[in-house]
Amino acid sequence: MERIRRIRLDAVGPRLAERIADLKAGRVAPATPRDAATVMVLRAPAGQRAEAGPGVEVLMLRRTAAMKFAPGAYVFPGGSVDRADYSEGIGWQGPSPEEFGARFAAVPEQARALVCAAVRETFEESGVLLAGSPGSGPPAVPSGPSWEADRLALTAGELTLAELLGRRGLVVRADLLVPWAHWITPSAEPRRFDARFFAAALPPGQEAAGHEAEADHVAWLSPASAIESARAGEISVLPPTAVTLYEFASAAAAGRGPADIVGGRREFKAVTPRMVIEDGAVWLLVPDEIEYPL
Predict the structure, then answer these.
(1) Is residue 120 domain-resident?
(2) What pLDDT digit, counting tens, does each position of 128-184 carry?
(3) DSSP state string for 38-89
(4) Looking at the 3D structure of the chain, how many domains does it have?
(5) Nearest in space to 142 (alpha carbons), one of 162, 127, 155, 152
């Protein structure tokens, strides 16, 4: 029998609690999860000297209060896969879609779209671009008015990733993305995502800037300090975010820097938490081996 870890959810509204009861009674059917991609962008602390040893900061965005999903929460860049992410016109360099598919339980076409969505969403939401010229050169450095115009057009749906990269002679750098985790939103949630998580080091010369329509604050946080802020109620994070922060904090405590973290192969399996109501409280149930820090 699988051992389960129980996480009490205190900030659950009456509508969700009612939906949990309706699902249990068979009065409603669960929503179908949408494919989504999330990217944890890592860097060494700004201004850190080499003799200070390894350190890690992760890029986090605070979602605006107007967002339908997780308003006000601190999240990593990411979002749903679009139809255009399946375009065969998107140039590619790095591990094959078959390799990503094997890690994420996805067919190659789906895995390719997930990687492209990860690159697109990260650029839209943070200005970090995981793309470059074909070959062994460094990733591109998107800076200046023309790049910002392209970013806004991409976000508005006026430009596709294939068009953006094609006109600039760039390809998706799949080799910069490391499969990290796979989370599927509980069936009780009306908005569900089949989310694949990637880790990536911040490319040299690039800077992060949020997109005002979706994020009202951009921060580079050490994973340990982000967890402490969440424990103190200073920031809000979703359970998968908290678990991932703990994993990065553990890696940093073991002396691993960003290059070490993204340089290895991580083993994982899909996690689909369940929500239940017991004794008037809502609980999230996850496999016991998952370390939840809050």
Answers:
(1) yes
(2) 999 999 988 899 999 999 999 999 999 999 999 999 999 999 999 999 999 999 999
(3) EEEEEEPPTT--GGG----EEEEEEEPTT-SSSTT-EE-SEEEPPGGGG-TT
(4) 1
(5) 127
Domain residues for 199? 4-46+53-287
What's 29's domain CATH number? 3.90.79.10
Q: Indicate the helix (H) or strand (E) that contains 36.
A: strand 34-43
- The pLDDT value given to residue 265: 87
Is there a contact between 155 and 148 (Cβ–Cβ < 8 Å)?
no
Number of Cβ within 10 Å of residue 213's Cβ equals 14
Q: What do you get for the CA distance between the two ends of the chain, in Å?
A: 25
**Residue at 175 is within a domain:** yes
Residue indicated by tokens 């990065």: 248
**16-47 core/surface letters (b: 16 or more CB in 10 A; e: else):** bbebbeebeeeeeeeeebebbbbbbbbbbeee
